[in-house]
Specification:
Elements: H1 15-18, H2 21-37, H3 44-60, H4 64-70, H5 75-87, E1 92-95, E2 98-101, H6 102-128, H7 134-140, H8 145-174, H9 185-212, H10 233-239, H11 241-256
Antiparallel strand pairs: 1-2
Length: about 260
Amino acid sequence: MGAGAHPLYRHDDSAVHRAPAEVKVVCLLVFVLAVVATPREVFWPFAVYALIVVGIWHLARIPLRWVLPRMLIEAPFLVLAVLLPFAEGGERIDVAGVALSVSGLWAAWGIVIKGTLGVAAALTVAATTSTTELPTALGRLGVPAIATSVLVLMIRYVDLLTAEAGRMRMARISRGDSPRVLHQAGAIAKGIGALFLRSYERGERVYVAMLSRGFDGNAPDLAVIGAPPRAVASQWVIVMAPAAAAVIVSASAWVLR
């Protein structure tokens, strides 16, 4: 992995990649809040939100074949949404001969559409923002230094832990383990526990190494060593345009519902 990269980062030189990271983070937050605040009974705003996200993908040159597999991270929430129409009470409606809860259907729809749009927007920011930009961006937004440090270290070491989990799995298979056999669940659980302990011990060693190098819990402003300068007013106006459009759409949905 190249310097400054993380598993979700997509190397390119588009206008979205060059946008200041702190503005992209704020834009993401406002966009997601606008989506969540939209009444689920009104359908057209979600189509507009989807068009906004797809438009940004086009501007950032992010292909669908790259985005769609990574959106599977929301699969557990989709499973929950599928179960809601069967588990909720209240008024029911027949769908293909099956009695489903009306409130459960609305709740499932809200989880699916809002969750999908939120994941898509978050992936867009992740795909266009490198780890070298994050500490400075979060620091400029007033995020506590300790939280910034934890986030950056988590992103830095997620690839290392993934690779170690892969090596442990390969070692089990080479010793006759079959991951698809149910009775091997105990060995898999023990492997997960061992990985957790190794991760904890690695974190302790990294922390001690950081202290020995003068770490005091504060994340420095990396602008002094080559990070991009602070965003100017014109950049805030341009980059925040999608979020502003989402806020207008959300407000319109409440007025026109």
